[in-house]
Write a structure and sequence with these properties.
2 copies of one chain form a homodimer. Chain A is mostly helical. Chain A has helices spanning about 5-10, 15-35, 40-50, 60-65, 70-80, 105-125, 130-155, and strands at about 85-90, 95-100. In chain A, β1 (about 85-90) and β2 form a beta hairpin. The longest helix of chain A is centred in the last third of the chain and has 25 residues, at about 130-155. The first copy, chain A, binds a DNA duplex through α5 and β2.
Chain lengths: ~160, ~160
DNA sequence: TATTGTTATACTCTATAACTATA
DNA sequence: TATAGTTATAGAGTATAACAATA
């Protein structure tokens, strides 16, 4: 009954890629809902998070960090700027480049979005015990770090 | 200083949604490559896996199980049928419906695809110790099961 | 009247190339 | 000559609606 029966009923439930896809899709759905009011949705959130710390980065730096094409980043930043969440300002050291700076309203929006996303994460991972959840997140971050360095070596752009 | 410093360097690396997205994207990239010769790519693989066990399901049953729109499933099955991996046969009990049955060639293709995907999974999770990997996969499957039952309750279609 | 499978259309997203202004 | 940002266009992918055959 145990393994073959379960496989016959739901052969995909033990598939690594399938479960990963299901979880990622489910999280994206509730996360999309959490940041629905934010221009650009999840990507708008990631951009705000990327510009919220350190020196104001250039558009190209953001595009590279987030893996977004620079041509689509233009539209995303247009929307964020129209919503007064970020501003574009010329880089004094390089007049071709622009520095993307987050506004006070942008910081406030980012803070609220983070709260909603924390709630989404909690909703998704309810059922895991604290130790299991902690181990899961650690493993996830570890794999992400590996694939990131791996991707850095592969992509040229 | 340590935590704010790390946050300033890579504020997204500890973000649950971000790391989940990075890992899912990385897996999809290598998995797409693994099943590139398969009509429909990853979805073609999932369809083959779904019809490989039990009674031959109808198209609508496959669409519901896999979360694929029935109109796109038509094209995917067209390609799989042209490649002789599955066949459509009328359901004797309901002449509106068609049973999707996997062919011998389909089973062979599925087996090879599974081997390649296992290799992809191994490549991605190298760096985790066996116990960590096992716990990770268990947690992933548990969340997927939860979200699945949750999705069943939410979606009407 | 509802359901299975199909087709056609419109819409969104992304990728590519080309252009400007600076370096 | 190369780079930062922008714009325009074409392609893939998806969703919607409508249809024929059957229940």
């Amino acid at each position: 009954m145990s393994s073959s029966d379960a496989a016959a009923t739901h052969p995909l439930e033990s598939d690594f890629g399938w479960t990963l896809g299901v979880v990622a899709k489910a999280y994206r759905r509730i996360a999309d809902d959490a940041v629905a009011t934010l221009p650009g949705g999840p990507r708008g959130y990631h951009i705000l998070a990327a510009v919220s710390d350190g020196q104001p980065p250039s558009q190209l730096a953001i595009a590279r960090q987030l893996g977004i094409d620079k041509t689509v980043l233009v539209h995303l930043l247009d929307d964020l700027e129209n919503a007064k969440l970020v501003t574009r300002r010329p880089d004094p050291a390089d007049r071709r480049a622009r520095q993307i700076v987050i506004t006070g309203k942008g910081r406030q929006t980012l803070r609220r979005a983070r709260e909603k996303l924390d709630a989404a994460e909690t909703a998704l991972t309810t059922g895991l015990r604290p130790a299991e959840l902690s181990a899961f997140k650690t493993a996830l971050a570890q794999i992400a770090r590996r694939t990131h360095t791996l991707a850095d070596g592969i992509d040229d752009c």
